[in-house]
Each structure stands twice: as C-alpha cells, then as structure tokens.
Write a structure and sequence with these properties.
CATH topology of one domain: Rossmann fold
CATH class of one domain: Alpha Beta
Number of helices: 17
Radius of gyration: 26 Å
Number of strands: 35
Shape: globular
Strand content: 25-35%
C-alpha cells in the first residue's frame, strides 16, 4: 500500500495486450502488469490487467481501486470500430443537392493520408471502402444558408421528419448525423432538425456538424459529424460498461479518458466527442515522450512504440508535440486537433509470410494475443516477429512478461523454418531476413516522418518504448545516426505511464475569415469570438469540478496566404489590437519561410485568418517522477546472469552475448555490447560497438 493510501492508475489497451501501471504518492512505479486484450469486450481485459497489478502489490483489487485517486484510460474502441467498420449504422441528413459530398471527398480522398511518393503508386489510390455511410443512408432536405448567414431557403421541416422516419424505420439507422451548408455561420436549421429527431426518437444518438466542427470546410465538417455519429454509440456503451465494472470493484474517484489531442477528458466528453478517443493509446506514449523531453533536456525527440501489433512514431520538436489540425484516419479527413502519429503493422505479433510473388514479408497481419506467436503454444501456427527474435537468440524463453508466459523455442523454429522452406532458406536465414525486413520498414517510417518533412534525424535523439522496441530499435537507430537512444524504465507500459502524467485538455475551434489588416468591425468580431470560446472552455472545466484558477488558457489564430492551403497557428493574447495584427502578419511570414524555405512566401496575395482555437489545460495532482538516490556505480557485474548466443547483423554471425538481469541494474551501471538486458516486460539488445548506461530513473541510454 502507498503510505498515504493513494495511487494513480493508468491503463492502455493495445492491439495485443492491456497495459497497466500504478504509481504511488511519491511518483515511484508501485506495480506494472499486462493482460491479454479481449476484443469481444475490452473492459474484461482492463479488469484482468488491474487484477494482475493488484496481485503484484499483494492486495485485493478492491483495496487497490478504493485507494486510487486518479484513474486514466486510453481505449481503442473507437479506432477499432472505424477500421473494422463495426460502428453504428449511421444515417446522414444534409442539404439537398449535396448528398455526394462525403463520397466526392474534395476529389482527394484517394490520396488522403499518403506520402508524396506513395501517391505515384496506383495500388495505394483508393477511396474509403466500405464507406461509413452508404448512399442508401443519406437524405437531402430542402434548406439553404449562404456564406454570410442569410437564409436563402427555409428548412423544410416536413421533409426532415420524412427523411428521419425513412432512415430510422425503413433503413434501420442507429444514429444520425446532420450537416448543412454554412451551418457553423447560422446553426438554426441544424438545431431545429435535432429537435425534430429528439421528438420522434428521444434516445437516438445524434451529431450536428456545427457542434462537432464549427469551421469552414463542407467535406471535413460532414465527415466529422458522420464519424461522431458512427463511433459515438460504441464508445458510450464501452465507457458505461467499464465505469460500472470499476465502480462495482471499488473505484470512487471517477474515470478520465485519454484523448488524441494529447490530454485527458471526462467520460461524458469522450462519449459526446468520440473522435477524441482515436489513437488515444499511442498518444499516451507521445505525452510520455514530451515529458521525457523536458526532463532530459532533449528538445528534439523521435518517439517510437513497437508493441505487439503496430509500430507508432511521433515527434517532439523544440520541446513540443507535433499536432495535426486536419488528421486523416482510414482515408477520412476530419476536424479534430490530434497529436501527429504515423503507424504501420509491425510489432511482436506481426506475421512472417511469403507473398504471391514468392517474396518474404512481415505484417501487417498480426497474430494478436490469441493465438499469438507460434512459440506461445496457444495454437498459433504462423511465425511472428516474436518467433524470429526467439530464433535469433534475443529472447529468453523463461523471461517473457516477467516469466508469466514461457516461450517454446522448438515451436518458433518449426514455424519460421516452414516459411523458410517456401523460399529455399534455412530457419536461421529466414529469421535473419524477417528481422531485416521489419527493421527496414520501421526505419522507413521514421525517415518519412523526419527527412521527408525537412528534419534531420542526426539532430534528434530517439526514445524507444513498447514491449518489442528494445530488441529492434537499437539496430535501426545505428543506421539512422541519431544522437542517442533511450529505453525508459517500464518501457513495455510507457504509454500507460504517459497517460498518468497527462493534463486535462479541452479545445474549441471556430471559423473566422478575414484578410489582414482587419477593419475595426472585423477585429471587434474576432475579439468577441475569442472571448466566447474562452468562456465556453472555462465553463466545461467548471462543470467538471475545476476551479477557474486551476485552468490555463491559450489561444491560437490560424493564418494562411490567400489562394494557398497551408495554415499556421500563431499564439495570441486575450484580445487582438490593431498593433497586434501587423506583428501577427510578420510572425506568420517568418514562420512560413522557416518551415517551407526562404522565398516560398506569397505576400503579394495577402494573408488571411481562417479560424480561432482556444485550449484549456488543467493538471491533476500527479506526483513527480521517482528516481534513485544511490550514488552511481559503473560496474554491472552484480546483474550478470549468464551468456547466450545471439545474432548480431554487423558481425554476420551468432556470438556469445552477456545477459544481464535488468531488475538488478543500478544507477550508473555501464554495459558494453554485444550484450542483452532482460527486464520485466521487455528485453534490450545492445549491439556490438555500442554502450549503454543506466541513470537514476532506470532509463538505459545507448550511445551507438
């Protein structure tokens, strides 16, 4: 038990395992636990991880939860529902004549989310399939508002009632989205449509575009409303089920949900705005990365998470997380500020196979937790990256997940060998090839997020976490020539750890179109909008029990060159004066050239404002990071547990590698490669020629 009887708990649902971390009042990790994911009901996996964490503490689950003052959770319910097309059957009501907006997709949906070189490949150019809302579930109704808010055609209320009845009673719609032209300027038609729906179907989930995304962009605003309606019921059902299970088991402190924005929010807010839950698990790791950046003085950091199913990459630039203002998920572009994370299917459970042309490949298919890798002995026949790592000597069959899951090397050898036979390779040759392929895929993803965005990896350090990162990332980090590689303590649950230390964040945006310099009337309207957004953000915090002086407000003005598309956010104060406008324009032009290159600006056409954003932050009482107080000692001999043959690519052969017990390593210990460190939840391989050092936080820094 914590001395003051209080814990903070973070739970992250990954593609393969549910991760749980428990912090005591001093900020030390009191317990770390994993439990297999349960896709059929993710709340069961959460409870399983909590049971394991309580067991590690030597207390009953009820004792742990009743002593918990903060419970933070990142779920994949929304993400899975979208990718697997298992959301609610959603109907769309829109302005008559614009029923195909979501399919046309600005004529750019086929290339949405692709890198420049990917667009050249015809095989990558496809639309979202199947669409989240088919033609049969879309109804147009007569109504029209213009760009200045004038009603050109009144709302056909009888037409709305007919459309709603057809969608719900005939088509079986389980939720509805409303998106009318220019509704963010004048929302009365959407508001009245919602009233009509509520009168007929009071329990139906409804999303209005002027509430979800009150910004310019007919397609993106429509997608935002549709995805909200599509995901909302699933997220709400899950959150309610989890809250009930936690409450029945003794939790009284309430549940906070991780969001894609990089902060925490209430369950009610997550249910009303389910887009906030997309990629919320990986974002927990990114938050941990930004806190790590501040703690270690590493302003530029590449954060990589290699777990059981995916490989996720995010960046910290100049100490700040990189955000996407208009993200893309599964070809759909929507409005929701989101931490920029790129992912590929490359994890410990990624399946090794041979494609139709006879070439070996790794992923994106995953074996998951069940049946899992062949070496698990749970019925899985396909070899995975975990099997490959076992064949190459990196993993100890008795040292996986703290010894709770034993691996069968003979099964791994057999599975990898079978695929090798298909291409005329020995078991070891196939394992080496698969190891090289998966590392190359991950290195390519890092390059896309850095080099192709104008960043030099040599100016970054790399932070690697996730259960499989410690084996693979040291090798590819050498090729990227990063400054240093860090593998933190509790790497396998680092995303959950990041969540525990996150802020509660609420954000509101609204379109505002004006060309600089502003007229007095435009400036007055701008300042009025800023004040209104700030008031609404503050009210949300107050309703959640926060005092006004606990909330930090920041404001951003998004500007761009006219006739161009790239918007840049500029921090502003509470109000914008006439003098501020000229300074903002100068800041925009300087920032634009700093990002896109000298001479790329186009000041002749003028600069315009496109939207306002107000962010509110409040920090829960998270304890500081716990660290060792002992004097550093370089000699790591006390932690040496044996020697194992492992393959090291630069040597081209298996060599004896010293194996260290990570639990016995101490502050200041120095380890020279080739060697292997086995910790609870992960394994770290230090290549030959590299050196690792343990610091006071238990982080291992590799100089490559």
């Amino acid at each position: 038990m914590a001395e003051d009887g209080s814990y903070r708990v973070g739970v992250d649902i990954g593609g393969t395992f549910v991760d749980c971390v428990v912090l005591d009042a001093d900020g030390h990790i009191a317990s770390v636990a994993k439990s297999p994911n349960t896709p059929e009901d993710q709340s069961l996996g959460v409870m399983g991880a909590l049971e394991a964490a309580a067991d590690n503490l030597g207390v009953a689950l009820r004792t742990l939860l009743s002593s918990t003052t903060g419970f933070i959770h990142g779920c994949t319910v929304g993400t899975n529902a979208l990718l697997e097309r298992k959301g609610a059957k959603t109907g769309l009501i829109t302005t008559s004549g614009f029923e195909d907006t979501i399919f046309i997709g600005r004529v750019m949906q086929k290339r949405a989310g692709l890198m420049a070189e990917e667009v050249a490949h015809q095989s990558r150019l496809f639309k979202a399939e199947p669409p989240v809302v088919p033609h049969a579930l879309i109804r147009g109704v007569a109504e029209r508002v213009d760009a200045i808010g004038e009603v050109l055609c009144p709302l056909d209320e009888a037409g709305v009632a007919t459309a709603v009845a057809e969608l719900v009673d005939q088509e079986g719609a389980e939720s509805l989205a409303i998106s009318y032209l220019w509704s963010f300027i004048r929302p009365e038609h959407e508001q009245r449509t919602r009233q009509i729906i509520a009168q007929a179907y009071p329990n139906l989930y409804v999303a209005s575009s002027h509430e979800v995304a009150p910004v310019l962009g007919e397609y993106e605003r429509t997608v935002s409303a549709v995805l909200t309606a599509y995901l909302g019921p699933a997220v709400a059902r899950y959150a309610q089920r989890l809250e009930e299970r936690l409450s029945e088991s003794g939790l009284s402190s309430g549940l906070l949900m991780m969001t894609c924005r990089g902060g925490l929010t209430s369950v009610d807010d997550a249910c009303q705005n389910p887009l906030l839950t997309l990629d919320s698990g990986p974002v927990g790791g990114a938050i941990g990365g930004s806190l790590f950046s501040a703690n270690y003085g590493e302003d530029n950091l590449i954060c990589v998470d290699m777990g059981g199913t995916s490989f996720d990459v995010s960046l910290v630039l100049k100490g700040e997380l990189v955000l996407e203002t208009i993200p893309v998920v599964d070809k759909y572009t929507f409005y929701c500020p989101k931490v920029a994370i790129k992912s590929i299917g490359a994890g410990g459970g990624s399946i090794v196979s041979v494609d139709a042309t006879g070439v070996p490949k790794v992923g994106p298919e995953s074996a998951g937790a069940r049946p899992g890798p062949a070496a698990y002995g749970l019925g899985g026949a396909e070899p995975t990256v975990t099997d490959v790592d076992l064949v190459l000597g990196y993993l100890n069959p008795d040292q996986v997940l703290g010894g709770k899951i034993s691996l069968d090397k003979s099964k791994a050898d057999k599975a990898v060998g079978r695929v090798g036979q298909e291409v005329g390779m020995t078991t070891e040759e196939m394992a080496i090839g698969a190891f090289t392929i998966v590392n190359a895929r991950m290195a390519d993803m890092i390059s896309k997020l850095t080099i192709e965005s104008g960043h030099d990896p040599r100016e970054f350090s790399l932070l690697a976490y996730g259960g499989a990162s410690g084996v693979h990332i040291p090798f590819l980090a050498q090729d990227l020539h990063v400054k240093s590689l860090y593998v933190p303590d509790a790497s396998s649950v680092f995303s959950a750890l990041g969540m525990v230390r996150g802020d509660v964040i609420h954000t509101l945006e609204h379109s505002f179109i004006a060309i600089a310099p502003f007229t007095p009337k435009e400036r007055s309207a701008l300042n009025g909008l800023i004040a209104d957004l700030e008031k609404r953000v503050m009210q949300q915090f107050i309703e959640e029990g926060w005092a006004q002086d606990q909330v930090r407000i920041s404001r951003s003005l998004f500007m761009k060159y006219r006739l161009q598309v790239h918007e840049l956010p500029l921090a502003i104060g509470e109000q914008v004066s006439e003098e501020d406008v000229a300074a903002l324009q100068a800041r925009f032009e300087a920032q634009y050239e700093d990002i896109y290159g000298q001479g790329t600006g186009f000041s002749q056409v003028g600069v315009e404002v496109v939207k306002i954003r107000v962010d509110g932050n409040a920090s829960p009482a998270a304890p500081p990071m716990g660290q060792a107080t002992e004097q550093p000692v370089a000699d790591a001999t006390a932690a040496l547990k044996g020697v194992r043959d492992a393959y090291f690519p630069s040597l081209g052969r298996f060599v004896p590698a010293e194996v260290y017990d990570g639990g016995k390593l101490r502050n200041g210990n120095v380890l020279k490669g080739p060697c292997i460190i086995e910790r609870t939840g992960d394994t770290i391989v230090i290549p030959n020629g590299a050196q690792g050092e343990v610091d006071a936080y238990g982080t291992i820094r590799l100089d490559l």
